[in-house]
Specification:
The protein folds into two domains: about 1-40, N-terminal domain of TfIIb; about 40-139, GMP Synthetase, Chain A, domain 3 (2-Layer Sandwich), CATH 3.30.300.20. Helix content is about 35%, strand content about 40%. The chain has three helices and six strands; from the N terminus they run βββαββααβ. Strand 2 and strand 3 form a beta hairpin. Helix 1 crosses helix 2. The chain starts with a strand and ends with a strand. Pfam families: OsmC. This is Putative redox protein.
Length: about 140
């Protein structure tokens, strides 16, 4: 896997993935940014949400659940010291579908957290406390 990050101006950058997709990164205005892109730590949080959501959707589909929507809402706490690493992250999954079985949704969230999500495993190994919960919304 490869990526490149190109400085644009001030504290703005364009990151390009090895697969050819680009994302704008920028700092907060108080650090010289223009607020034209996500902060790098926000991208890490979004990446975790994407990784875990991919797992949950895939597992539910394999379990033949009639899932119509999955939303991961993430909240994080960071250390007060530099580097301001994440110390705690909570993922709340809102899973919508028809006749969803709670045991399957619970299993999908647990499998993502404990076995499949590479981003979660990496952050946990670095000392981040990651918790998960879910709610089921009938379609």
């Amino acid at each position: 896997m490869k990526a490149a990050v190109q400085w644009v101006k001030d504290v703005s950058f364009v990151a390009e993935s090895g697969s050819g997709h680009a994302v704008v990164l920028d700092g907060a205005p108080e650090y010289g940014g223009r607020n034209i892109g996500a902060r790098p730590m926000e991208l890490i949080l979004m990446g975790l949400g994407g990784c875990a959501s991919f797992d949950v959707v895939t597992i539910l589909k394999k379990a033949r659940q009639q899932v119509t929507d999955v939303r991961a809402e993430l909240s994080a706490e960071r250390a007060d010291a530099v580097p301001a690493v994440f110390t705690k992250i909570h993922l709340h999954f809102v899973v919508t579908g028809k006749d969803l079985k709670e045991v399957q949704v619970k299993k999908a969230v647990e499998l993502s957290a404990e076995k499949y999500c590479s981003a979660s495993a990496m952050l946990s190994a670095g000392g981040v406390e990651i918790t998960h919960d879910y709610e089921i919304v009938p379609a």
